[in-house]
Here is the input.
Amino acid sequence: MSSQGFSYSPDTLRSMAQDILDHAASRGASACETDVSEGFGQSVTVRRGEVETIEYNRDKGVGVTVYVGRQRGYASTSDFSRAALHATVDAALSIARFTAPDEAAGLPEADLLARGEMDLDLHHPWPLPVEEAIELARRCEAAAFAVSPLVKNSEGASVSAHESHFVSANSLGFMGGYPSSRHYLSCSVIAGEGEAMQRDDWYSTHRNATDLAEPEVIGEYAARRALSRLKARKIPTCEVPVLFEAPLAASLIGNFVYAVSGGSLYRKSSFLLDSLETQVFSSQVHISERPHLRRGLASSPFDDDGVATRDREVVEAGVLKGYFLSTYSARKLGMANTGNAGGSHNLIVRPGKRDLVGLAALMGRGLLVTELLGQGVNYVTGDYSRGACGYWVEDGEIRYPVQEITIAGNLKAMLRGIVAVGSDVLVRGSKQVGSILVDRMTVAGA
Here is the structure.
């Protein structure tokens, strides 16, 4: 990466955060919290062997939330000058004085705040010269083209590296922050010709670039996925089991998380209202939250409110044991804070013993879904309807690719109808899960 690192030291960020808190107090705020951050990165895309884009980014920002009693105001700036920081505090105070009081507003309880340092090994700089990034992308794409002459075109291979650091602080004495990194290598190709073309992609992302898959492996796999989709057929409408490939299984778990998160619950816009200690999944499903995994893509010692994160069991044998609550949503619901302001932290769905091939064999006859299209999820009712592509499975084996279908069901029934979770765990974000087999859905086709 051509950039020479962070422009501001951690001590400078801490000094700015303290100055903001001090100014807010001097101007009459009863409480204040702030987040000061900086990040930079580089991204390179190669298409058909030629450099298509080279992008550099460097950004910084300050967010300030102030409270005047139970009135809340927020303002932000990208200007780190002392005058701009003070002006941002004043703007937040002006907003707060014109807002209605909210009994749930305010800082977390002091005893919930994170204390001390915790090194989770999240920062791994990748000093990648742009010439080397271009070469990595070319190797990735070339490997895809080398698989077959039917791989006719490319949407590009990309390499990106990103680093950031931040400091969060509030007027209860909390101040914490850390640096982190996230690096990425991807390839997307097109196979076939005329109206029979198909595309597919693959990528790898990690905190440490040494953990990324080799570029040739990613390119070759992306090509094989695209080739396997050629001669896709339509299928008649039917009701069959549906097997969600691991990347899509993560989105299914994401639907569940959204439904049991504080905002959905206190707004009463969730199909899982009042579901604590009830059977939400089949008994096959166990979900743990592990915020302190070293190098975890969603690891953090504290949430966006500064509340200490902790290990916990979210689902045990299908029974929901905990919601995802921030300071505000916990107060709105009259419940305990779970340290999830900003989202979940490394949700791990306990894997089963079967890989994707084993799950297909268990399914026998049905649909393996490898791509979802559209956003057809109604979180109030749980109704689920999305366009899909994938493969028809007969006698436990893939027979042919399918396209132009819609899969439909209700999330409440789908979660309870999970037959098995695969051992083919894929780690790409905050959810770690293998493929998921659902007992029955409607597949709308020809």
Remarks:
- The mean pLDDT is 95.
